Amino acid sequence: MSTTNTTGDSKDAITGSDVKISCRSVWKVYGDNADAKFQALSKHHTNANPLRQSLIDEGLIVAAADVSFDVRAGEIFIIMGLSGSGKSTMVRCLSRLVEPTSGEVLLDGEDLLSANDKELIKIRRHRMGMVFQNFGLMPHLTVLENIGFPLKLQGRSSQDRQARAKEVIKLVGLAGREDSFPRELSGGQQQRVGIARSLAVEPDVWLLDEPFSALDPLIRRQMQDEFLRLQSLLNKTIVFITHDFLEALRLADRIAIMKDGQLVQVGTPTELVLNPVNDYVAEFTKDVPRDRVITVGELAIDAANENLSKQLPEGTPTINGGTTLDSVMPLFESHPHGVSVEHKGENLGVVTPAMVIKALAQQQQPA
Amino acid sequence: MSSNTASRYSFWIWPPLLAVCALMIWFAPSVSWLRTPPASWSLPVVDITNQVTDVFVGFAKPFFRAIGELFAYPMEALQSLLQWLPWPATVAIFTAFAWVAAGWKLSLFTVFALMYMVVTGYWAPSMNTLGTVLISVPLALAIGFGLAVITYSSPKVNRIVQPMLDFMQTVPTFAYLIPIMLLFGFGPVVGVIASAIYACPPMVRNMIVGLQQVPADIIESGRMSGATPAQLFWQVRVPNAMSTIMVGVNQATMAALSMVIIAAIIGSSADIGWEVLNQMRKARFGESLIAGLVIALFAMVLDRISLGFSDRSRAVARQHASVLVRSAPWAIALSVVVLCVAFAPQITWFSVWPEGWVFYPADSINAALQYVTKEYADFMKGIKNSALFYFLLPIRIGFVKAISPFSWGFALEPWMMHAYALGAGVLSLLGAWRFSWRIAVGVIIIATILWFGMTGIPWAVFILVVSTLAWQVAGVRVGLMSLFAWLFMVVTGIWDQAMVSVAMCLAAVLVCLLLGGALGVWASRSDRVSSFIRPINDTLQSMPLFVILIPFLMFFQIGEFTSFLAIIAYAIVPCIRYTEHGLRNVPETTVEAAVAMGSTPRQLLWNVKLPLALPQIMLGLNQCVMFALAMLVITALVGSKGLGQSVYIALSNSNAGQGLVAGFGMAFIAIVADRILQGWSLTRQKELGLV
């Protein structure tokens, strides 16, 4: 056995660092005279928390409170939260389906909130695609027409639309169902149409609002795999909303956890699992099987300075840094001294059984 | 019951209120203003309205006449086209529409219906009616569409338009005709204008509802697809609201047809409505039945075709069909049209159905009718008189006047009155003891109504009791609204007619509630009964109102009883429908729980299903009252009294003031009844946790 690639879930531990979307102190407040009240109250408070509290005391609903995060190009950024946590509001602020009360949203460094209606339509037509929980398909249009709909709005010719729509249909594996109507399709198929439609305009930002929540668990699993496959082909910048922590773990490069309109913690799945900032996050991570979350790459980097690689015997396999611990453990049976870890040709160091045990044992302590 | 509704039903209002009422009833015989509002109280509303109308009409008439002319041209052109077109061609076109809308069954029915018009020799007047409808429906749809778009896009406009729509639908049809007649003059164009206006509200209403009901995620997906506001409206909202909009089209079409028929009263053109009305006035029942059937068939064909287009599953099937299949009906119809037009000069019966081939069995119908009415005269008189003496009269004039040797066979003695009062008192106490104080109050009110009759109760008593009731079940605003509405009747001097109408309506609604409720219960338990009743209901609902009069008129002649039956026939439909719907939609789990607890079918019905279905049944009752009032006006044609008659008389005298006042009176009764019943239903639904 030489370079063994992973059998389990693999994800890129390392991503590009250029920021695509940037959210700076975004607030969204609902209620009577919300804007005016926010303006007035924000003068009295410099800190977010007291401001939020006094807005609530005014009888307003604070759907997003001082939310800031960056999404890097090519990253899968997941916003996770229970219902009412403000996650759907956040993704709508990114696309301005919901107008933020205050704050900045930067897309490629340009302020999205200052775009006028015309510019906004242009941005939506060419640079953003969105997938909805309940699919949002037009019931009176066929699959082909639904997928071509954004192109039709742009005024592209019928031939052009059909050609592009057929391409995307093939991509999502719905070839042959072009002339069906949405109600003739299963939920999973309908969401494939939704995905195809959002990709038809070749956006670089892809927003998905609980895309798989309305599907059965088995289908959901399939669609998640499908989603990862598509992303490996397309390399979009993705903001993905879910209330399912396991889904988030499975798909995310980084996860932002929201609660009551506030961002609780942002980090990679491993960071959340190993270092939850508070009980709320810990509650989610409690029952997560850590060996399926923590990757060898993360352990190897932590231990890089110990420089253990020289002590390894000949014939030690090298594995990908994105491999999770559960898949590396069987290797220790024949390689008790550990294995070496690489990522994209770069040597990250070594992972030993002791390191794995330590990492797994750490989490057993109460948070 | 939740605490906030409990506080509204307050017991302590009733004893003093009933005491005051008792005093008023006691003194009524000696104090005349308690019995009827004195003439000196009435404001000169009628005269002022007439003066205002006169000024306005004098000033605006040329303008409106010009508009009338404008519509007269296309209408006359269309009518002459339809007259010129050989009948097989028209039949072919209609059949093609029916085929596309709903398949071969409907197209077969359409052929049958149109052939009936040909064979009975009513083709020419039918085509005139069709011409009018074909102008007024698009007009109504266009106005409705525009109005809906404006209303939809501005919440401010919406706040004004919605109550106006409510009001427009409760003003009786005749009342529309008066101002329109004054402005546009007589003639068929009035029918076009009146029906276009009358048919607007359902279009506007359905379209707004449709637009508002488009799911949020579809709107969002449209916006994220980069739709401009105009694209969002036309390519996302409108197509998604289409099936609801088509329901609006259907309702508007039926309303327009109904109004075109009614407009015959002033139109006197050679259309089918005029034919029916004319025959009815001459008491030629066989003839009016044959002509009435034309209207009925018209209504059914138009109804089914327009409904067919609103059925989404058919629309999908249509889109799936190949071009060949899709265009086949049109191709066939077109070739028939071409052939017919080409051969019309040779084959004359294409254009004019020969005299000798006409099948017109009026004489045999009349003969048969005469035989039946003669043979069963006693039986029918028996039914009629019992209904009148023991039911209609007590509600209108009370036992106190209804009981006489002529009607009941004995005269009213003082001891009977005492016994009645005692009986009512005991019943009331029994109600209070066994059930609740509300039953007790109800018993007292009903006993009083039956004793004095609607017209015999002092007006102030009626107003106080009804408005308090309105306040108790539906809130302060409805209570005040009721107070205002009834005072309007007092100051405009239409109190007596209003009470006659209320009495008639009440009587009919009671029967509808009991009979319709029973039928609804039956239909909810048996699919066979349900599928038998449904098409009858559909047909009754789509019928222009005065067609319904004909069969009852045939057997019971002109008079109150005929109106009574006609009202019931029309207004019972919602009672049946809503009862069935309510009972069938009781949550499955609740029923299962009750069955699991071992309840018998009877217990299930009375203790579980009916209480849960009550709010739905109340809505049915609400609709029933609206329908009854609508029909009540039409029955003025066959001699019912009350406000409907006032409107009808005003129409024949072109008295705008009288017509509008009586029409508004009617509308106020309808609106108050509507708000009370809806308020009650809503309160119940909240209590049951259904909303």
Q: Which features characterize this protein?
A:
heterodimer; A: 367 residues; alpha/beta; Rossmann fold; CBS-domain; 6-stranded mixed β-sheet; 4-stranded antiparallel β-sheet; 14 helices; 22% strand; B: 691 residues; mainly alpha; MetI-like fold; 32 helices; disordered N terminus
What would you say this structure looks like, in words?
The complex is a heterodimer of chains A (367) and B (691). Chain A has 367 residues and is of the alpha/beta class. Chain A has 2 domains: 19-29 and 61-289, Rossmann fold (3-Layer(aba) Sandwich), CATH 3.40.50.300; 291-362, CBS-domain (Roll). Helices cover 38% and strands 22% of the residues of chain A. Chain A has 14 helices and 13 strands. In chain A, the strands form 3 sheets. Chain A has a 6-stranded mixed beta sheet with strand order 6-7-8-3-9-10, sandwiched between helices. In chain A, a hairpin with a 2-residue loop joins strand 9 and strand 10 (262-267). The longest helix of chain A has 18 residues, at 217-234. Residues 1-16 of chain A have low confidence and may be disordered. By secondary structure, chain B is mainly alpha-helical. Chain B folds into 2 domains: 59-368, MetI-like (MetI-like fold, Orthogonal Bundle), CATH 1.10.3720; 487-687, Orthogonal Bundle (MetI-like fold). In chain B, 83% of the residues lie in helices and 0% in strands. Chain B is built from 32 helices and no strands. Chain B has helices at residues 3-8, 14-27, 32-35, 45-84, 87-102, 104-119, 123-153, 155-170, 173-184, 188-212, 216-224, 229-267, 272-281, 285-310, 312-320, 323-343, 348-351, 362-375, 377-397, 399-402, 414-434, 437-452, 459-474, 476-491, 495-525, 527-542, 545-556, 560-584, 588-596, 601-634, 643-652, 656-687. In chain B, helix 12 packs antiparallel against helix 14 and helix 19 (377-397) packs across helix 22. Classes of the chains: A alpha/beta (367), B mainly alpha (691). The A-B interface holds A 92, 95, 97, 121-122, 124-126, 128-130, 132-142, 149-150, 152-154, 179, 181, 183, 194, 197-198, 201, 207 and B 215, 217-218, 220-228, 231, 235-236, 239-240, 242, 312, 315-316, 319-320.
